[in-house]
Amino acid sequence: MATYLDFEKPIEQIDLDIQSAKSRGDDDAVRILEENLEKEVAKTFKNLSDYQKLQLARHPERPYALDYIRAILDNSYELHGDRLFSDDPAIVCYIGEIEGMTTIIIGEQKGRGTKNKLKRNFGMPHPDGYRKALRVARLAEKFKIPVLFLIDTPGAYPGLGAEERGQSEAIAKNLFELSDIDTITISIVIGEGGSGGALAIGVADKLAMMRYSVFSVISPEGCAAILWNDPAKQKQATKALKITAEDLKELNLVDDVINEPLVGGHRNKKGAADVLKRYFLEQVKELGSLSSKERLEKRYEKLMNLGAFSTKEEESSKDSGSLTSFFDRS
Question: Residues 90, 129: contact at Cβ < 8 Å?
Fold first, then answer.
């Protein structure tokens, strides 16, 4: 049975009416209701708030990494283990083919149902998972296989065992080594991109976000608890954090926004998989036209240009003519 969010209730009612009309065999009513549904979807999803987009990113029926892997990867074979400690089920690695092109996909998997959520640790990887991801990425580099990273995690696992095994070191090493890995790498936020847990597989030639995904240094609930000592202010925190795909594209922190179906990937999984696959193939073709040196230089330039800031002193100097003139006066 489909799960509907609060703001999707009008859509739920029309869906129920369509089911009822179909059961009665009333084709005219079905046609009218489907037209009404299309209008309601356009009205609802074209005016979403940041918090509503966060809800969609966390929707329990949203496609997870394995959903995309099964939809777009042929002749797939799973690669296990970090060769150091264990095989972390929160990160999955597969090799296979996309339209005949050998491809490796590395993704964070949340799991559905209590048993699978526990198995996947709710999509929160341990250091073993990040080391597995790096091992497989290095394998891809050896054979010049393009890599597709699928980001979907509330964050890296913060438990004692993860800290004892070097969680922060594992994330930092991935950031460092993936920055100059010599093969085509494309990273896509498919749902929730949380903190360093997302960044650890987010350093790539191209970083994109699905339309209803989010990417943030901290969860809105955590931000609200720290800033206002009130986790209930998550809506305010969501807006302040600028975590939506549109916000991050405007800030030049991601390269592209992938237009998944307007109604959302949770309602049209095939449509979401198709646009993700098309984006990946287009970017591989574009990046494949560059030499390794050119591609690595572009990646380095992109990473070095991330973020910007100014100080009050700099703003004052701009008003007076230059930074030098500001210090001369002081």
Answer: yes
